[in-house]
Specification:
- This protein is mainly alpha-helical.
- It contains 15 helices and no strands.
- Helix 7 runs antiparallel to helix 8, helix 8 crosses helix 10 and helix 12 packs antiparallel against helix 14.
- 73% of the residues lie in helices and 0% in strands.
- It has a single domain, classed as Orthogonal Bundle (Farnesyl Diphosphate Synthase), CATH 1.10.600.
- The N terminus is likely disordered.
Length: 309
């Protein structure tokens, strides 16, 4: 649910340029929820849910409540983030046409909307799933809005901090089944946490001028030649490879996932190496594209391997 994330929070949403004028008021309200990010949050949570099952006899009603509750909290956090950052968004080209900075949606209405979605999601998780999953959702929401969001205007460490709430949704899927944070949940957390960082560093490099106009303190603002940005993207990708293999080491997946995750990780690493060696708009876009493809591929292989195994 992080803004970079993710997933979590806004990593996927940030990768696109400012959209054309929204065609309808209804579409504006939908746009406030950042539906692409919310969808990825739900998918990552569903992955955790399905991996936590002892077999693939799915408790569909529990899955429904867990995913809808997670989606509502994610959507609400996206709305509230845009309420908080509407002034900064108005200064940046790719976000100036969002419903709030453009004036198409009233701030008070958006605030009520975001709070209502968030509370509805937390209530659904607490009443229909379990209290641990609701607590994780509350921590994600609070960390995203009250730690990560203000920190973006203070220090570049915000990128790492923001990856924490962005990596919690698959843990929520796991706890929805097991009602406990176990090694499998932590492995999924690590995979999502590390994936977000090179993904968002590529975005930060591509839109570094926009971030400066908005007053955000990203690493690219104090790294004019991009050397540190490239090195960090490369190091996070290196760390991602062994962590992505943990599901097989823990017995959650088999050799098919191990090979698939390793190959995907090597492709991701190669893209980060090209970016670290030559920090251009082209290599940054390539790294971003690979990162966008990497996550759904890895999650899909993970689920297919578990289902067939």
């Amino acid at each position: 649910m992080r803004e970079g994330s993710t997933l979590p929070a806004e990593a996927l949403e940030e990768s696109s340029a400012t959209a054309a004028a929204t065609p309808s008021r209804f579409a504006d309200w939908v746009d406030l929820t950042k539906p692409r990010i919310t969808l990825m949050v739900v998918i990552s949570a569903a992955t955790g849910f399905l991996l936590a099952l002892g077999d693939f006899h799915v408790p569909w009603l529990l899955l429904f409540h867990a995913m809808v509750g997670t989606g509502l909290v994610s959507a609400g956090s996206s709305v509230l983030n845009q309420v908080i950052e509407r002034t900064a968004d108005a200064k940046m080209r790719r976000t100036a046409n969002r419903p709030l900075p453009s004036g198409r949606i009233n701030v008070d209405g958006a605030l009520f909307y975001g709070v209502a979605l968030s509370l509805a999601g937390l209530a659904q998780l607490a009443l229909m799933v379990n209290l641990l999953t609701a607590l994780l959702a509350a921590l994600t929401l609070a960390g995203y809005l009250f730690i990560y969001t203000p920190l973006k205007r203070i220090d570049p460490i915000s990128t790492v901090v923001g990856a924490i709430p962005g990596a919690i949704p698959p843990m929520m899927g796991w706890t929805a089944v097991r009602d406990a944070v176990e090694p499998g949940a932590l492995a999924l957390f690590g995979l999502l946490f590390l994936w977000q960082l090179p993904h968002f560093l590529a975005i930060a490099w591509m839109y570094r001028a926009d971030y400066q106009r908005g007053g955000f303190k990203m690493i690219t603002g104090v790294d004019p030649d991009g050397r540190r940005t490239g090195q960090q993207a490369l190091l996070w990708c290196v760390a991602l490879i062994p962590v992505s293999l943990l599901p097989s080491a823990l017995g959650l997946t088999g050799i098919a996932y191990f090979v698939g995750a390793l190959l995907a990780g090597l492709v991701f690493l190669a893209a980060s190496f090209r970016f670290a060696r030559n920090r251009t708009a082209t290599t940054a876009k390539q790294l971003l594209l690979v990162s966008v493809i990497y996550l759904p591929v890895v999650l899909t292989v993970m689920l297919v391997d578990r289902a067939l195994g």
